[in-house]
Amino acid sequence: MKIEKLPSGTYRTRMMKSGITYTLTYPYKPSEKEAYRDLLNLATMPHSQYDRMTFAEAFTEYVTSKSNVLSPSTIRGYYSMYRNSDDKIKKMLIKDIDKHILQSAINKYSEKHSPKSTRNLSLLYLTILRHFEFGKDISIDLPHKAKTEPYIPTQEDIKKILEYFKGTDYEMVFYLLCMGIRRSEAMALQLEDIDRETNIVTINKAKVLNEKNEWLIKPFTKTESSTRKIGVPKYVVDLIYEKGFIYKNAPNQIYKKLTDAENALGLPHFSVHKLRHSFISYAHSYGIPDADIMKMSGHSEQKTLDRIYRHSMGITSANNIMISKMENLMK
Hints:
Strand content: 5-15%
Number of strands: 8
Order of helices and strands: EEEHHHHHHHHHEEEEEHHHHH
Largest sheet: 3 strands, antiparallel
Number of helices: 14
Strand order of the largest sheet: 1-2-3
């Protein structure tokens, strides 16, 4: 048995018994008596089937087990964070990872990544460790979330953007984005999803990138509440049927087109997703209750909206108000 100090500042002790090596780490240097006692207890207690599993193996098994319930984009994000994480921790047995080792890995990652990305990796680490019955008592310091005030396009901005794309192949999809539909939802829409008699759009799928950076249409939306039916202006429905499509270009092309429009119009730069935020923000300003805004936008939790209203006017009335407001922008 020997006690050695690790680069992380923790101490590791090992002992072999019956051909099996047992390892423990301490945040301080233990006495030989203490280390021997703890190792002996470890060697004689019932062991988990995961005692010899490395973090790399745990990551692969965890993500594979969740592949049917997590979205392809979420899994792709997991793989991206994992590739950029500390190689040292990947090779370690998960039972040997303590809060000091984990904190060191998180601190190293934070040097080159944003607070949000660092927090996401921290939660991924903890989730995996706890999934395999390790790290239940681990607590680490997470970086503070950066407080920023993203620019939300105004009604005048929205009007300029819709006018900019008028008569182009992008007019229909940008109108739908400005109605609060997510980009992934708009990309997946087909003609059969739009009822020309009622001007109702059925949203029940999404176009996303998988972990291999391949585009695919998954037969479900981001959350259960995201599957919904919403009304859109008749002008948009007629235009879609006249053109015969909703969107036919490369999915990522939508970002470049919005940037081109912002540059041409002299608008502040904002992402495609901020068009959805704008819709929600102005729905609030028109006095539409959050309960109805959530139905139109497909949000699953009320806390994602700024305020909660006690009463609902009904999705049809709320939707009609927003259709009227959006139609006015085209006049």
